[in-house]
Design goal:
With 411 residues, the protein is an alpha+beta fold. The chain has a single domain, classed as Cytochrome P450 (Cytochrome p450, Orthogonal Bundle), CATH 1.10.630. It is built from 16 helices and 12 strands. The strands form 4 sheets. It has a 5-stranded mixed beta sheet with strand order 1-2-8-5-3, with helices on both faces. A 3-stranded antiparallel beta sheet has the order 4-12-9. It is globular. 46% of the residues are buried. The N terminus is likely disordered.
C-alpha cells in the first residue's frame, strides 16, 4: 500500500491516521507510519487530540508525570445501555491499567511481586514443558492454526497456572478474553460493543467467584495473594476482581498476539527464520526484542493531560488527549537503522511495545521469557515452521493480532 503525500496539513495527517485505523485488518500500516514520520510526526486532530509517532515523543508521554489515564480509552462506550456501561465503567476505574498514582501504586504493589524477573524465571521449567508438549502434539499435522492450536493454549496455560485458574475453566476464559478486550479498542464497531461488554461482566463474575473460593481456601497462586490483600484491607474486592481479569487478559490476549505476530514476522521474513537456527543463545534476547518491535500487540497508547504541560512543542491543557502510536514509534527512522527491516541481531535498545513509565507492562518479563523459550525450543528440537495458507488478522489496528495463522510443523 502506498500513500500519496499531497499535503502536510493537520487535516491530511488526520486522514492518514484515521485511514490506517479504518483500513481492513489485513492491510499493514507501515506505509502510514512512513507518511507520518516524513510529513506529520506531531499533529493535532480536529477534535483536539495530539498524535505522536516519533520514538522519543512517544517514550516521553509514557513517562511524563503530568500525563496519566483519563476517559480516553472508554469515550466510545457512552452509547451502551446503562445496564452494560455502568458495570464496565465501575470495573475499568478500579483497574491498575487505567488508574493513576496513588491509586495505581496501591493496586500494583500486591501484583508486582509475581512478575519480577526472578519470580518469572522460576516458572521457566513449567513454561518449557508446555511448549514442548504443544509442539509434540502439533508436529506432523497437515495444517495447524498457530493461534488456536499453539499461542492461545500456551498463553492461557501459563497465566492460568500463575493465577490458579482450574484447567477446565480456561477454554471459556480464552474465548471471553479477546472478546472483552474489544471494549478498550475505540475502533470496535458499535454493533460489537454490547457483546464485548457482556464478556467483561462475565469475566468479572467468574473472578469474583474465584476470589471468594481463594479467601476460603488460599493457595500459592496470584489470585490467592490478591485475596490476601483484600482480607488485609490493602485492596477492595472490585480491585481484586479487576486485577485478576486484567492479568488473565495479558495471557489470553496480549501474549497470544505477541506470539502470533512474532511467528508471522518470521514466516514473512524467511531469511530471518533461517537465521534463527544459527543464532547464538546470547543473542536470543535481541531476537525477542526485535520481534516485539516489529509488530507490537498494542499499537496505540493514549494519555490524558492531568495538568498543564508541554509535549513535542505543543502546550496541553488538562483533559486534552495525547495518542502515542507505539507501532509507528517502533519504526522511527530517527531511532532505528533501516527500521522496516527485520533483523534478529538488532541491538538498538528496547522497543516501546511494552509501554513505559508507571504503566509499563507488568507482564513484560513474562512475555519476553515465553517468546524466547518458544524460539529456543523450536531450534533445540529441530522443529521447522512453514506457512500453510493465508493468514487472517483480527479486526482493528489497535489490538494487533491474528484470528487465523495456518502453519505446518515438521522435524
Amino acid at each position: 500500500m502506498s500513500i500519496r503525500p499531497d499535503a502536510t496539513t493537520g487535516n491530511a495527517a488526520e486522514e492518514v491516521f484515521l485511514g490506517f485505523l479504518d483500513s481492513p485488518a489485513d492491510d499493514e500500516p507501515v506505509a502510514h507510519y512512513r507518511w507520518l514520520h516524513e510529513h506529520a510526526p506531531v499533529f493535532t486532530t480536529s477534535a483536539g487530540m495530539v498524535v505522536l509517532s516519533r520514538y522519543d515523543d512517544v517514550d516521553l508521554i509514557l513517562r511524563h508525570r503530568a500525563l496519566g489515564r483519563g476517559d480516553e480509552s472508554v469515550q466510545h462506550l457512552t452509547d451502551l445501555p446503562p445496564q452494560l456501561v455502568e458495570p464496565v465503567m465501575a470495573l475499568w476505574k478500579r483497574t491498575m491499567v487505567f488508574a493513576n498514582p496513588p491509586l495505581h501504586t496501591r493496586m500494583r504493589r500486591p501484583v508486582a511481586a509475581a512478575f519480577t524477573p526472578r519470580h518469572v524465571a522460576e516458572l521457566r521449567a513449567r513454561i518449557v514443558g508446555r511448549i514442548e508438549r504443544l509442539l509434540d502434539e502439533l508436529t506432523g499435522a497437515s495444517e495447524v492454526d498457530w493461534v488456536r492450536g499453539f499461542a492461545s493454549p500456551l498463553g492461557t496455560g501459563v497465566v492460568g497456572d500463575m493465577l490458579g485458574v482450574p484447567e477446565t475453566d480456561r477454554p471459556e476464559l480464552a474465548r471471553l478474553s479477546p472478546e472483552s478486550m474489544k471494549v478498550f479498542d475505540p475502533m470496535t464497531a458499535t454493533t460489537d460493543l454490547p457483546a464485548a461488554a457482556e464478556a467483561v461482566i462475565d469475566m468479572a463474575d467468574y473472578f469474583g467467584d474465584l476470589v471468594d473460593d481463594r479467601r476460603r481456601d488460599p493457595g500459592q497462586d496470584v489470585v490467592s495473594r490478591l485475596a490476601g490483600a483484600l482480607d488485609a484491607g490493602s485492596l477492595e474486592r472490585i480491585e481484586v476482581v479487576a486485577a485478576s481479569a486484567n492479568l488473565l487478559n495479558a495471557g489470553s490476549d496480549t501474549l497470544v498476539n505477541l506470539l502470533s505476530n512474532a511467528m508471522y514476522a518470521l514466516l514473512t521474513n524467511p531469511d530471518q527464520l533461517d537465521a534463527l537456527t544459527d543464532l547464538p543463545p546470547s543473542l536470543l534476547p535481541l531476537a525477542v526484542e526485535e520481534l516485539a518491535r516489529w509488530d507490537p500487540p498494542l499499537n496505540l497508547n493514549p494519555r490524558t493531560a492531568l495538568e498543564p504541560c508541554t509535549v513535542a512543542g505543543i502546550d496541553l491543557l488538562p483533559g486534552q488527549i495525547v495518542i502515542g502510536v507505539q507501532g509507528a514509534a517502533n519504526r522511527d527512522p530517527g531511532h532505528y537503522t533501516d527500521p522496516d527491516r527485520l533483523d534478529l541481531t538488532r541491538d538498538e535498545g528496547p522497543s516501546l511495545s511494552f509501554g513505559g513509565g508507571v504503566h509499563y507492562c507488568l507482564g513484560a518479563h513474562l512475555g519476553r521469557l515465553v517468546l524466547g523459550e518458544v524460539l529456543r525450543v523450536l531450534v533445540a528440537t529441530g522443529t521447522t515452521v512453514a506457512p500453510a495458507g493465508t493468514a487472517r488478522r483480527r479486526p482493528g489496528h489497535n489490538l494487533r493480532g491474528f484470528q487465523y495463522l495456518p502453519v505446518t510443523l515438521a522435524r
